C-alpha cells in the first residue's frame, strides 16, 4: 500500500495543479468540470494501476494481474463514482486550496479500505443471461 501511495502521489499532485490552472475558480460550474476530469482520468488511472500494481507486487503473473483487473475494475469504479464526486464537489467548492490535499488524504483513508477489500476479499460474481456469461 505504501508503494502504491508513493506511486500515485506525484500524478495526483500534478493532476490537481493542472486542474486548478486550466479550470480556475470555486464555482459550481468549475467544480463540476473538475469532478468530471477527476472521475474520467484520475480515478481510472488510480483504480487500474492499484488493482494491477498490487497484484504484481503480490507475485502474480502479468496475466493473472490483468485478469484480476478485468474481473474487479467495473465494480470498483462504480464504488469510486459513488464516493468521490460528492467528496470532490465539497473539496473544489468549499475547501481552501491549501487544505485540499489534506481533505483528500483523510478521505483516502476510507477509500484505501475499499481498494484493499476489492483486491483481497471481493469475488466477482458471474451472471447468466441466456447462456452468456457476463
Q: How much helicity do the residues have?
A: over 70%
Q: The biggest beta sheet, please?
A: 2 strands, antiparallel
Q: What global shape is seen?
A: elongated
Structural class: mainly alpha
Q: Which secondary structure elements does this structure contain, and how are they paired or packed?
A:
Elements: H1 2-22, H2 28-57, H3 62-94, H4 100-120, E1 128-129, E2 132-133
Antiparallel strand pairs: 1-2
Helix pairs in contact: 1-2, 2-3, 3-4
Written overview of the protein:
78% of the residues lie in helices and 3% in strands. It is an all-alpha fold and 134 residues long. The protein has a two-stranded antiparallel sheet. A hairpin with a 2-residue loop joins β1 and β2. It is elongated and about 45 Å long.
Question: What are the key terms here?
Answer:
single chain; mainly alpha; 134 residues
Summarize the structure.
This protein is mostly helical and 134 residues long.
Amino acid at each position: 500500500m505504501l508503494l502504491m501511495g508513493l506511486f500515485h502521489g506525484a500524478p495526483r499532485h500534478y493532476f490537481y495543479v493542472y486542474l486548478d490552472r486550466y479550470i480556475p475558480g470555486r464555482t459550481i460550474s468549475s467544480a463540476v468540470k473538475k469532478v468530471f476530469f477527476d472521475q474520467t482520468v484520475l480515478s481510472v488511472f488510480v483504480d487500474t494501476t492499484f488493482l494491477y500494481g498490487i497484484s504484481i507486487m503480490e507475485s502474480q503473473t502479468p496475466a493473472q494481474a490483468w485478469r484480476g483487473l478485468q474481473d474487479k475494475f467495473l465494480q470498483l469504479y462504480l464504488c469510486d463514482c459513488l464516493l468521490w464526486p460528492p467528496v470532490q464537489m465539497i473539496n473544489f467548492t468549499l475547501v481552501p486550496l491549501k487544505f485540499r490535499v489534506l481533505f483528500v488524504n483523510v478521505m483516502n483513508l476510507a477509500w484505501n479500505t475499499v481498494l484493499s477489500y476489492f483486491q483481497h476479499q471481493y469475488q466477482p460474481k458471474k451472471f447468466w443471461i441466456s447462456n452468456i456469461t457476463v
